[in-house]
Amino acid sequence: MKRPKDIEYAKWLAQYYLSYRMMTNQEVIDKLRKKEISENIIEECIEFLEKYKFINDYDYACRFINDGLKFKKQGERLIRQKLKFKGITDATLDKAFNEIEFDKTPVIMKIIEKKNLDISDYKKKQRLINYLAGRGYSFDDIQESIDEFTKQNNDY
Predict the structure, then answer these.
(1) Threshold 0.85, pTM exceeds
(2) What is the pLDDT of residues 43-86, one digit of tens each?
(3) 105-128: per-residue pLDDT in tens?
(4) Which terminus of the chain, N or C, has fewer Cβ atoms within 10 Å?
(5) Has residue 1 been placed in a domain?
(6) Helix 104-115 and helix 122-134: axis angle, to 10°?
């Protein structure tokens, strides 16, 4: 027997999805569209979810940024790209990044230590720079960290 595609079903379904993990507005909308729920019911459901704070893109972005920076050791570019893919707006991203203070240099230096590469060798240094750029760090942050790492290791 097929369930009716009414507002109560949409609310129940959205809350069911949100019981597993936090989602952005766009992710919930996409999930509901896959269940062939009409657009006006989806809009009403999203308003309900926002009103009762089941979904909050700003909160989601702050948590995602915090996890990416501190635990996954990702750079700002990569995190921005992932969040934009999830439907977070630029204004929300800027607001979230401005709130979170994070010094990237020690994190990049730990990655450099872990890689244990001889950065005096040009090819190995380029490989390290490419790796860090792929993790989402800017070239300025990478260069600053490499300079600091070289300075600390030459003091001994």
Answers:
(1) no
(2) 999 999 999 999 999 999 999 999 998 899 899 999 999 999 99
(3) 888 888 888 888 788 888 988 999
(4) N
(5) no
(6) 130
Is residue 13 in some structural domain? yes
Give the Å distances, CA to CA, from 112 to 81, 93, 143, 151: 23, 28, 12, 13
Q: Structure tokens of 73? A: 């050791």
Q: Which domain holds residue 42?
A: 7-51
The DSSP line for the chain is -PPP--HHHHHHHHHHHHTTS---HHHHHHHHHHTT--HHHHHHHHHHHHHTTS--HHHHHHHHHHHHHHTS---HHHHHHHHHHTT--HHHHHHHHHH----HHHHHHHHHHHHT--TTSHHHHHHHHHHHHHTT--HHHHHHHHHHHHHHHH--
Residue 117: CA count within 13 A, CB half-sphere: 18
- Rounded CA-CA distance 36/45 in Å is 14
Q: So what's the pLDDT on residue 1?
A: 42
